[in-house]
Design brief:
251 residues; Lipocalin; 7 helices; eight-stranded antiparallel beta barrel
Length: 251
């Protein structure tokens, strides 16, 4: 079981990020495991990453075992089989929830991801990134869907495949949301250059499970690439120090 939990810990770390884009609808058992693991993790603060990892794995494993019956009923996942693919799916769900509800976990996961460097997952090659001014201007109209997400240069699973963003009001408002959903983040926009905007979080609509982002948070939005049929945009959440690059496609 310890090996399986260690494997899932890595998947959880790779699930850390959409932050302001995490408009999730977690199953009840996922929320339960997330809350229990967070509460347990906070009770035993440690200084080193190895110590934190041990505490995290113990907390997560205990909660999984405790809620095994509910996991099987709600998610059709039998953790007793040790199926790594199934554990990985559960890990992604729990990790995505904890990323927005447990600040202590986010801090730990970011540090762990940094320590793993390029070994954390497939990396993003930005050497061919180029920005065409006219194409960059086009990004400011229409709706875009997140296709790939990279945290500190490493590929990170997107917890919700319908996450979108769009600029409105001639580029003065920015909306980050899940397509068809009611959960929405609303930002004001000040363009510092044709490719860089300063976003300020004004409103979180119908969002009660995000303990990370706060009203007034500043996000630096940068258009990094418009070439080769691909748009890449960077989000930098200033207060937390979290940077992601996303490949996005027009809806």
């Amino acid at each position: 079981m310890a090996h399986k939990i260690h494997h899932m810990k890595k998947i959880l770390v790779m699930s850390v990020l959409a932050l302001s884009s995490s408009t999730l609808w977690s199953q009840k058992v996922v929320k339960t495991i997330s809350n229990e693991t967070c509460a347990c993790f906070k009770k035993d603060p440690k200084k080193t990453l190895d110590e934190q990892s041990t505490v995290f794995q113990t907390c997560l494993g205990n909660s999984m075992v405790k809620n095994a019956a509910a996991v099987k009923k709600e998610l059709k996942i039998d953790i007793s089989t040790g199926d790594e693919a199934a554990l990985g799916k559960l890990g992604e769900l729990v990790g995505a929830d904890m990323a927005v509800t447990c600040p202590e976990f986010l801090k730990y996961a970011m540090a762990l991801n940094d320590s793993q460097g390029s070994n954390a997952g497939p990396s993003l090659d930005s050497s061919s990134f180029k920005v065409d001014a006219a194409k960059a201007k086009n990004l400011k109209v229409g709706k875009y869907k997140y296709e790939e997400l990279y945290l500190n240069g490493n590929f990170t699973p997107i917890p919700d495949s319908t996450l979108c963003f769009e600029f409105q009001g001639n580029g003065t408002k920015y909306f980050d949301y899940s397509e068809g959903g009611k959960k929405v983040y609303v930002y004001s926009v000040i363009w510092k250059s044709p490719t860089v905007a300063e976003l300020k979080l004004l409103e979180k609509r119908n969002i009660t499970d995000d303990a990370i982002t706060k009203i007034g948070d500043k996000v630096i939005f940068t258009i990094k690439n418009t070439e080769n049929g691909a748009y890449h945009v960077e989000h930098f959440l200033v207060r937390v120090g979290l940077k992601t690059i996303s490949k996005v496609v027009k809806k």
